[in-house]
Specification:
heterodimer; A: mainly alpha; two-stranded antiparallel sheet; 11 helices; 73% helix; B: alpha/beta; Rossmann fold; 2 domains; seven-stranded mixed β-sheet; five-stranded parallel β-sheet; 14 strands
Chain lengths: 298, 389
């Protein structure tokens, strides 16, 4: 029984991270129908920012997690610059496919750029302890506070994002842009500003995800966004890409599948099962778990 | 006027590139040795160790008059600990006419270039690639380190000596190094009558969570776990998560644990690193003349204690020197024949040894343990094992 709980907790721990990252993917996809493959690398940017600002923050006497504020600013700037420099010009000239390829190129560009910066360099960096260790004990197993925080933060962000897109003027503008750019322009919505803002918010989410990731898995390296981003992307697709609660659900499902495969089936097949589950779900329900099968929508 | 300037500029560029391409800038008759190491990427600490060690050896050799009266020159290449990049680096060295190569650090990378090296008839002398399958008889592949069949067995021998009858293993099924050590460890356990009571693996070296694997160790009731991984996951993930999962017994690793103390989480409870043991190529606190003078020279030049990778990188250059002097020539075939001579004795920082028929040194291993007061992690020598019991 303790194995079951331990596995469940590890699954939630991984899942909470995937969920938080998947929210960023799904947000951008939901608004401009672009799978932003560079999102995983925004996590890397956020991770390095956190690591570099922690010593400064500690010197000021603030707790280590305050460094996330710097990461939010840096990530939002990087995300918006990516949109301005790469995605917007390509979108003007090309199709959805060219935008997708640009996203992949952007991801590789960021990874290699980071390596070329001397203070980052190629070596992995290990962060300092971010939250106090400890947690709630269930018998022999411990659920860390960090995991609980991550789940709560994911849920809060999910609710805020959902309310934001449904209720506010800006959110409505985003949904308009997502449905029909030309009509949105006619309605007086500045499409380019709206998309830029979407990137700003999506990338700021990456900074929060980076902090929570580091709190549980305290290592950053320039290519960390690769597999992490891929799994979060799979989570978003599994839950129904473009649907905000779906990202959170998908993330937790992927984390649990990974953990339970490790414990009960084969520890070296965790990734195999993650992607197998994805294929099965997509065969049965192509729009994802929470997705609606509407022809035009996706 | 403008056009003529442009043509002049283009010509100047072509001139410069042709010069640098054909190596005209190199000293006329220098002996060129190529180095392939992971200078960037996840295992960059290894590459930095190997290239600095090799640089130091070359500096010393050149200051003492070179090899056969010729100066030595190194060409450094980077494989980013990626087998494909390793092959690219190898091809670029061969294209430059390099016949003698030091590299690469990991078994995974080195296995990508062994076939090509035999085909191109270029010597490979790996400082730290320990997988058994790499070196065979009648080939161009040699190394300056022991093989995994020895390294894994040393760990099993240590478990037996410490009185453990049931042990567990956590390893990466997809990595040549980790899997190779797992194989030799379990084979040696069978020979020593130790039961491997729990086996867990991970799908890749990128995995972040080892909690379930160590939970299985706790459930199996073992107090000795062999976990052959590299420092970049051992420091931040494997050891702290093992302790958090309630596993308090001995964790034993291999030479991949070198430099772990630089990759631990500051501010976390580092007492997790007590009872962690690993096997290594040498011990920097050894007081013998050759080790202490190497450590002193390295510290003076780079300001840090050399890792085992620095030591083996240094040794590789000196092994080439000995082989070239024995052969009296610098072409790959003559050097290969000299290295294949099993009676030649190499006096190196990582021990005095000869190579066996396959090209692997017959030498001992140092067993090192980590200890921590909670603030930092330090390493200390436990034992030096030169022969398997």
């Amino acid at each position: 029984m303790s194995t079951f709980f331990q596995t469940l907790i590890v699954g939630l721990r991984l899942g909470s991270i995937y969920a938080l990252i998947a929210l960023g993917y799904t947000m951008v996809y939901g608004i401009i129908r672009l799978i932003n493959f560079a999102h995983g690398d925004f996590i890397m940017v956020g991770g390095y920012t956190v690591i570099f600002t922690i010593p400064l923050v500690l010197r000021l006497g603030a707790p280590a997690w305050v460094s996330v504020l710097a990461a939010v600013v840096v990530c939002a700037l990087v995300g918006m610059s990516t949109e301005l420099i790469a995605y917007r010009p390509v979108r003007k000239k090309g199709t959805n496919m060219t935008a997708l390829i640009t996203a992949i190129a952007m991801s590789l560009f960021l990874e290699n750029l980071a390596q070329a910066i001397p203070v980052i360099g190629p070596n992995p960096k290990v962060s300092t302890q971010i939250f106090r260790a400890g947690g709630i004990r269930f018998g022999t197993v411990t659920m860390e506070y960090t995991t609980i925080f991550t789940l709560i933060i994911s849920a809060v962000i999910m609710l805020v994002l959902y309310t934001f897109t449904q209720k506010t003027r800006l959110g409505r503008a985003m949904r308009c842009v997502s449905e029909d750019k030309a009509a949105a322009t006619l309605m007086g919505i500045n499409v380019n500003h709206t998309i830029l803002l979407t990137f700003g918010i999506g990338s700021a989410l990456a900074a929060v995800a980076a902090l929570m990731y580091l709190a549980q898995y305290p290592k950053v390296y320039t290519t960390m966004g690769g597999l992490l981003g891929l799994k979060a992307f799979v989570s978003a697709v599994l839950g129904g890409i473009g649907i905000i609660p779906g990202a959170m659900l998908g993330g937790i499902v992927i984390g649990l599948v990974e953990s339970f495969t490790t414990s009960y089936i084969s520890s070296s097949m965790a990734d195999t099962f993650v992607f197998l589950i994805l294929i099965i779900v997509l065969v049965i329900k192509p729009a994802g778990i929470l997705g609606k099968n509407v022809g035009e929508k996706v | 006027m403008k056009k003529r300037n442009l043509i002049f500029l283009v010509l100047a560029f072509i001139f410069v590139f042709t010069l640098s391409g054909t190596g005209v800038w190199a000293a006329d008759d220098a002996i060129v040795i190529g180095v392939i190491s992971p200078n960037t990427g996840a295992l960059a600490a290894y590459g930095i160790g190997i290239s600095t060690g090799a640089d130091l050896a070359v500096e010393e050799i050149n200051a003492a008059g070179g090899i056969l009266g010729r100066q030595v020159e190194l060409i450094h290449t980077d494989d980013q600990s990626d087998p494909t990049e390793c092959l690219n680096a190898f091809n670029s060295l061969v294209a430059k006419g390099v016949q003698l190569i030091v590299g690469s650090a990991t078994s995974g990378c080195t296995s990508a270039i062994t076939d090509a090296a035999n085909e191109e008839e270029v010597c490979i002398l790996s400082p730290t690639a320990t997988a058994d399958s790499l070196t065979t008889e009648d080939d161009y592949i040699f190394r300056a380190c022991y093989a995994d069949s020895f390294q894994g067995a040393i760990a099993a021998a240590y478990a037996k000596q410490a009185g453990f009858e049931r042990v567990g293993v956590v390893y990466c099924a997809a990595d040549v190094y980790s899997k190779g050590l797992f194989d030799s460890f379990s084979k040696a356990c069978a020979a020593y009558g130790i039961e491997v009571a729990a086996e867990q693996s991970t799908a890749s070296l990128d995995v972040q969570d080892y909690t379930n694997q160590f939970n299985a160790m706790v459930n199996a009731g073992v107090d000795f776990v062999y976990a052959p991984y590299y420092y970049d996951v051992v420091g931040p993930y494997v050891v702290p998560q093992a302790r958090a999962a309630g596993y308090l017994g001995i964790i034993m690793g291999a030479d991949g644990y070198d430099t772990t103390p630089d990759y631990v989480v500051a501010g976390a409870d580092l007492t997790a690193f007590n009872d962690v043991y690993w096997t290594n190529h040498y011990d920097p606190s050894d007081t013998s003349e050759i080790v202490s003078s190497f450590v002193k020279a390295y510290e003076e030049k780079y300001g840090s204690i050399p890792s085992a990778f620095g030591a083996t990188g240094y040794d590789c250059v000196y092994m080439y020197k000995a082989a070239i002097e024995a052969a009296g020539a610098v072409d790959a075939e003559a050097v290969r024949d000299a290295l294949a001579d099993t009676s030649a004795v190499y006096e190196c920082v990582t021990g005095t040894f000869s190579l066996d028929e396959s090209g692997t040194p017959m030498k001992g291993a140092a067993i090192i343990s980590f200890s921590s007061d909670g603030q930092s992690v330090s390493a200390k020598l436990v034992d030096v094992v030169s022969q398997l019991p």
